[in-house]
Amino acid sequence: MKIDKIRLHHFRNYKDLSLDFHPNLNIFLGQNAQGKTNLLESIYFLALTRSHRTSHDKELISWEEKELSVSGLVSKQNTTVPLEVRLNRKGREAYVNRLKEARLADYIGQLNLIMFAPEDLELIKGSPAVRRRFLDMEIGQIRPVYLYDSLRYNRALKERNAYLKFDEDKIDLNFLSVLDNQLIAHGEKIMAERENFIKNLEYYAQSIHQKLTHGKENLTISYQRKVQEDFLKEVEGRHRLDIMRHQTSIGPHRDDLLFFVNGINVADFGSQGQQRTVALSIKLAEIDLIHAETGDYPILLLDDVMSELDNSRQLDLLETSLDKTQTFITTTTLEHLQHLPEQLSVFHVDDGNVEVENQV
């Protein structure tokens, strides 16, 4: 899978920009705050209809404008597909082959990508919410029905929590049981998809991690389910607790992931180097996992991470990715980049102006 070209209209600091991309490696080069990450963000937005940096959509629209659009031409499995995402005050609209999709969930998966940024270290040592968001975004790319189940589950959860805020003497346990069943119907599907995804992710990540550590470390991933056996029985057993706390205390919205290196919880006891290597292993494993699930390799976005890696890890990253994926890198200098291929495109970014500096 590759993105051949992209056009930004009123996206961040780009009023109107069109770029043609190299099929293998593209480097966005420039000083900080010039718009390099905005370019990666636009590719992310085209793939997933949202930003990885903000939950406030209006921040994506250029100053004093009312709407934006990002469109691109994507090649996959011997076909070329025009994609477009529009954002205005009414919300987001997604188009495939210039036809509007009825639901955004039906659009996700048209362009698969993996992003690796310095903040991805939070996947290992951050809050459980960060890891749940990781699961939702990554599973949603390869199984769009997961996004539908997540949406329905969150609606049921919101309705149940709103009902639990009533005074205790006004809560009807029979009606609460109806809300339980709505929650469980979609929650069980979410947990099953997550378990399957983690099992497959661990399979690919283990071999990659052993290579990165020269066989010295074994990586395992544990899905921490709050629901252990019977979802219905467990949620009914917590009625009293939920009524007292005015919120739903069990379900996939409480789940988490733990990462272990040689049996040790790397978030609590691992070094920063180990945590960084685990995060890298996870991202590289996703490349093979998405290929196994969809038949196409995803696009790889590297936002200012090469300077964080030593030469051996840079080599491991590029060797693992460049023969499989179209890769986009942001950087302030080329000096620390090692092992680059001869064929690539370099885009110089200066205050929202982009010029192709070198294309081989």
TrEMBL record:
One of its GO terms (cellular component) is cytoplasm. GO terms for biological process: DNA replication; DNA synthesis involved in DNA repair; double-strand break repair; SOS response. The keyword DNA-binding applies. GO terms for molecular function: ATP binding; single-stranded DNA binding. Keywords: ATP-binding, Cytoplasm, DNA damage, DNA repair, DNA replication, DNA-binding, Nucleotide-binding, SOS response. Belongs to the RecF family. ATP binds at residues 30-37. Residues 3-352 form the RecF/RecN/SMC N-terminal domain. It is found in: Cytoplasm. Gene3D superfamilies: P-loop containing nucleotide triphosphate hydrolases, RecF/RecN/SMC, N-terminal domain. The RecF protein is involved in DNA metabolism; it is required for DNA replication and normal SOS inducibility. RecF binds preferentially to single-stranded, linear DNA. It also seems to bind ATP. This is DNA replication and repair protein RecF. It comes from the Bacteria. SUPFAM superfamilies: P-loop containing nucleoside triphosphate hydrolases. Pfam families: SMC_N. PROSITE patterns: RECF_1 (PS00617), RECF_2 (PS00618). CDD domains: ABC_RecF (cd03242). InterPro entries: DNA-binding_RecF (IPR001238), DNA-binding_RecF_CS (IPR018078), P-loop_NTPase (IPR027417), RecF/RecN/SMC_N (IPR003395), RecF_2 (IPR042174).
